[in-house]
Design goal:
Distance between the termini: 54 Å
Structural class: alpha+beta
Shape: rod-shaped
Strand content: 15-25%
Order of helices and strands: HEEHEEEHH
Radius of gyration: 26 Å
Number of helices: 4
Strand order of the largest sheet: 2-1-5-4-3
Number of strands: 5
């Protein structure tokens, strides 16, 4: 994901004539009403980038093109930003991130730049979705492995239940198996 976002970032700067900017991906597992937290970032440091205008673009999914930042009361990441383009990245109809482009020139971003940035935002959304699915797959694999380990331990203990071993010994083996397959440091079985 990192390499792909770096490539998209470079392409965004080149094709839109931006001087700098950033791509931000947000924590997608947050509640809709919760404040966005930056999960991944490429480019400029975000700082306090989610001012009300940028936040509106994020929430509505509508790009924000500010041809002259001096005409607005904006908190900008650095001083020499004359024009600003903010394009939301949407995944499954939810805010997933932003492509934020800066220029030292006023009126830098025309409709072609907006269209290019929208296209790049779509590519970022696909990459983001793939990364989420990959992460989910890793989590499922880890859970499945834990479940298989649990079953293996239970199969090891099962023959003891049919043996003529003393009850204390059987319970000790069961407690040890529980300890090995769970995060518990100690297991106490009382009758």
């Amino acid at each position: 994901l990192s390499n792909l976002l770096s490539l998209v970032y470079s392409e965004a700067l080149l094709t839109t004539r931006a001087d700098c900017g950033s791509i931000l991906l947000l924590d997608f597992n947050r509640a809709e009403d919760e404040s966005p937290k930056i999960r991944f970032q490429v480019g400029d440091t975000a700082g306090r980038i989610l001012n009300p205008m940028v936040r509106q673009a994020l929430d509505t999914g509508i790009p924000l093109n500010v041809p002259d930042t001096s005409q607005h009361d904006l908190v900008l990441p650095h001083e020499d930003i004359a024009s600003l383009l903010v394009v939301p990245v949407r995944y499954q109809n939810r805010a997933a991130g932003l492509i934020i482009l800066h220029s030292r020139s006023k009126n830098c971003f025309d409709q072609d730049a907006v269209d290019i940035a929208l296209s790049l935002a779509d590519q970022v959304a696909v990459a983001f979705g793939n990364a989420l699915q990959y992460e989910e797959q890793l989590n499922r694999s880890a859970l499945l492995k834990r479940e298989l380990d649990t079953l293996a331990k239970l199969f090891q203990v099962a023959p003891l239940l049919r043996s003529n071993q003393p009850l204390e010994e059987i319970l000790s083996v069961i407690a040890k198996a529980i300890q090995e397959i769970t995060p518990f440091q100690a297991v106490v079985i009382s009758l």
